[in-house]
Amino acid sequence: YSPVLLRMFEAHINVELCSSVKSIKYICSYICKGSDAAVIDVQRSGNPQEVDAQPGSRRLIDEVEEYQQGRYISSNEAVWRILEFPIHERFPPVVHLAVHLENGQRIYFHQDADLE
């Protein structure tokens, strides 16, 4: 309870101090979480040529053809992406990681070198 904030915003406001690493980790994961995902099924309806000739026969299902993975994008996120605004402030978006052997020296691969 804060009487100053109550008078300032004319509403009850709960203010807490978060000072542990877990609270910062939670806030970052909450802000950076992705959109909701959905799996949709695409079927043809009412086509008499696709009716099974034998009752009880099993139809082969091509899951790659019939199922598509989709996700919901809100109108705000869609406009943000269409106008190509930055999504995050990481430049470059790919982080270079050094390749090394356990208990050994670093290994460098050159782009033109034969890897075999």
Overview of this structure, please?
The N and C termini lie far apart (68 Å). It is built from four helices and four strands; from the N terminus they run H-H-E-H-E-H-E-E. It has helices at residues 3-9, 21-31, 63-66, 75-82; strands spanning 37-41, 67-71, 99-100, 106-107. The radius of gyration is 27 Å and the shape is flat. It has one domain. The strands form two sheets. Strands 1-2 form a two-stranded antiparallel sheet.
Q: Please give the domain count.
A: 1
Structural class: alpha+beta
Largest beta-sheet details: 2 strands, antiparallel
Q: Give the DSSP E fraction (strand runs of 2 or more residues).
A: 5-15%
**Backbone CA Rg:** 27 Å
What is the global morphology? Answer: flat
Mean pLDDT: 71
Can you count the beta strands?
4
Low-confidence stretches: none
Helix percent band: 25-40%
Span of the ends, CA to CA: 68 Å
What is the number of helices?
Answer: 4
Order of helices and strands: HHEHEHEE
User: Main sheet: which strands, in order across?
Assistant: 1-2
Secondary-structure map with pairings?
Blueprint: H1 3-9, H2 21-31, E1 37-41, H3 63-66, E2 67-71, H4 75-82, E3 99-100, E4 106-107
Antiparallel strand pairs: 1-2, 3-4
